[in-house]
Amino acid sequence: MENRFYHWITGRFPQNYLIKYPFRGAVIVTLFSFLFTMLYDPLNFHGNQIFSYPQLMGLYCFVAGITVYLLTYFLKLVPYFHSEEEWTLVKEILSILIILFGIGLGIYFSASLIDPQTPQWTFHNFIGSQTNAYLIGSLPFLFSLIINISQKVHHRSTESTYSTEIEANPVDIAEEMIQIKSKLKKETLEFYPSQFLYAESDGNYVMFYLNEESEISKKIIRNSIRQVEQQLTGQPHFFRTHRSFIVNLEKITGKNGNTSGYHLNLEGLSTEIPVSRQNVAKFDELFPLKA
């Protein structure tokens, strides 16, 4: 149970729509926050001598939208948050918290220009800005997060159903052992084709994910993904979907995406494997034959 939970929160997770598309996210946050404050006035604000209430809220919401765009853009420059293909639930939640905190800071510092009559630079106002940012700004992010969690659970359920069907109808086929040679002379990795789920490149190493007696194991060998691909040329069911991934087509339980790229669901795994744009056409030729 603990391993499944750990794998679920650290495995690949769909990126929040507002983070994936920074400009659209900024527009959504701006419009949602403005409409929310107009319909439901949760902040008990009023206009001042310079701006009416709608104008005041519009300016604050605009600041929130600009903050979302800038923070999302700069987060993608940070190595930890850079790759959408390595996105996890932990990164999702952490990035949302960072963005909401940034919105609070933006509101706090812009208040001196937007509403100069209100006393500024107080701890009370700082807490108020953060509270408003988390209460209102979090809603559009949470909406996208809930949708992604629902999709993740659905895919997990599909994987479990597929695994149950396989266990109920086992096929005993004689297989030839695959041997992967390492750059280290004395290091080799052996497994049967039916055990192989996928391989992922990690610097000078390749991580193999195998299904050994209904348990998912990870084996690491020093080699490049290109050399591993060459050693697997005799396996027609193995396909390099991405510069960093090789997948067993017979272990695919589902896919989502479009011509810009797919994400594959594999038997017994919550991790999604990417198919790059340039490999989509070739994948579509091969996968229907294995479905």
From TrEMBL:
Superkingdom field: Bacteria
InterPro entries: LytTR_DNA-bd_dom
Pfam families: LytTR (PF04397)
Transmembrane annotation, as ranges: 21-40, 52-72, 93-111, 131-149
Example of a GO MF term: DNA binding
Keywords: DNA-binding, Membrane, Transmembrane, Transmembrane helix
Domain HTH LytTR-type: 197-289
Name this polypeptide is given: LytTr DNA-binding domain-containing protein
Lineage: Bacteria, Pseudomonadati, Bacteroidota, Bacteroidia, Marinilabiliales
